[in-house]
Queue: 4 jobs
Job 1
Amino acid sequence: MGLDIVICIDDKGNQALTDAVSNIEVQEKMDQNSSFKLHFMVDICKEDIARDMDATTAPGKILSVLAKVKDDLVCLVKGPITQVESNLEHGGAGSWIQVQGEDMGYQMNRTTKFANLSAVKDSDIVRKLIAGNDNMTPDVEETNGSHEEENHSFVQTETDLQTIRRLGQQNGFHFWITCTNKGEATGHFRTRDLNGKAKQVLTVNLADNNIDALRITVDSKRPSQTIGKQIDLRTKEEMGGEVKLTDTVLAKTGLPGAAGSNVQTMQLAPVVDSAGALKARSDAALKETQWFITATCKTNLHRLCDVVRVHTIVEIQGAGTKHSGKYYVTGVKHTIDAVGYTMDIELARNGWGI
């Protein structure tokens, strides 16, 4: 139907599916598997509903959605089909098939595993888990500290995905998967990169705007400091104390300044073996609480001439001195149909002012 997309099954372009699709939704969201939903209009042949399509869209088939952007193909999502819904109308006209699925993280969440590891860092564990899944390439940022046998070795009792998500939460890291237009997957395990350049500029309230509205929510009632002390069971000495925000701020004034003199603190007392591990948990918690500004907006491919992706930075212009500037993309809903290609965007910011 001329949607400027390509549908692939097992990394091979499928022209029949590409021609039959009438609506596509791809949802990207931080700390969640990307998901997809495709709606196909089908015909009835010999009292059977889309027999060939039914075979190519069976649960378990690996489906990819590639969008044509700037004379190139961008893979929005790749993963297994997990659900199929069919609707048969009497006479055939108006019949359809709808398929849903998730990215390759779904495959990493199917089998519970048991492993006992020592003398390894969290980043070493994650790197091994990613590399062991469907030839996925690891892109892993190093973590601090290690699991030593004389303290506590690391024991995996979950699926690979659950383990990676848990280690990410403990370190203030995030896990997501990207794919090239050839189907090559990369598993990213990283903190938010706040020092990069903006990938796109979103403009409101100015000439040549590419968004019509920007909704902003500010919640300064968030902790910017942790307080937690424990006793080292080996030395019987006190460890821990106050930990404050140290991350890069995307704006002039961060959470401590926005909250004023009433600093919000939180008590943190995880089970750890050292002061370094305790501080790492505090840093991880503050990496998430600092995002006290959230925003939403909507644009389309025709106006932006590009696609917005999660875990990237965009720049907002025209929102005034307080709210213009860099934002981190935390979610994008891509909707592609005969009308066009729209993107509902979710943003976060850890400061205001420019």
Job 2
Amino acid sequence: MANSSKARGDGAEQAACDYLQSQKLQILQRNYRCRLGEIDIVARHHDYLVFVEVRLRGNLRFGGAAESVNARKQQRLIHAASHYLASQCQTEPPCRFDVIEATESNGEFQLNWLPNAFQL
């Protein structure tokens, strides 16, 4: 079961990357990990560095995927993004945090992109 869960999550992230590229974002890195957290996708969109959280929900009983990016998760993303900026960037570009909600039906992912989903 864990493997199918991981495979579905990986599939959702790949679908999100494909979608973002179709929207003219350049994928810079996937699954950036540091001791402070993980960022699913780091991308460039025009002058912005975009940190993307992909959330897959199979059961809406506890709310949609976007609702699962609560204040605690947002703080972990912000800390991981700060680490990324300090270790990967010469200068600090303007940044934003996007969320992509993914649901799966018959092996296909439906995506809802929420640009600038939360602020620092």
Job 3
Amino acid sequence: MFLPKYPDTPTLPPAHTHTVAADHQLSTRRPVPQISVSTGAVATVLVGGVVLTALLAAVAITAVSVAVAAVVLRSMLREQHRR
């Protein structure tokens, strides 16, 4: 009842015929688009990155110097109030 039934004769897939037309259809695929990046675009990105990094560093240095100046002024004013 649960045994599989096998065919009496094995069925073979149809034979593959190799033709020149089939080769031509396989070789006429669309080419893969290539990404072309110009050197100007690369230079622009690099210069932009350098400028943004320099701006970030300038802001960080300014923030640290303002914080140091605030601490110094606070300590000077505190000493003046104690006298």
Job 4
Amino acid sequence: MASLATNVAPLTGLRFDDKLTAAGAGGDTVSPGAGVLLAVKNADSTSHTVTLVTPGTVDGLAIADRTVTVPAAQTYLIPVTSRYRNPATGRANVTYDGVTAVTVGVFRVGS
């Protein structure tokens, strides 16, 4: 898994399209938290599913992972809150059903 760096957007704005990188075939990790967004650009002709792994359990039962379908030729922003933080690594695990023509980036608002 590749470790995606978080880009901080200043109050004056930030160009983000030049900060997107190829999605990792084995998935990526993100530093989660309040205001953190995963940008997913799907330049493919078919939709792709992004999965945020939820590491927690309730009464011994696994909490379902969050899946988001990104339609063909669209860009989505997906919140990556602290609930996706893996206690062992401190990072959130993100996987993709396919990475053909999919680019990603992580962003949060600065102060």
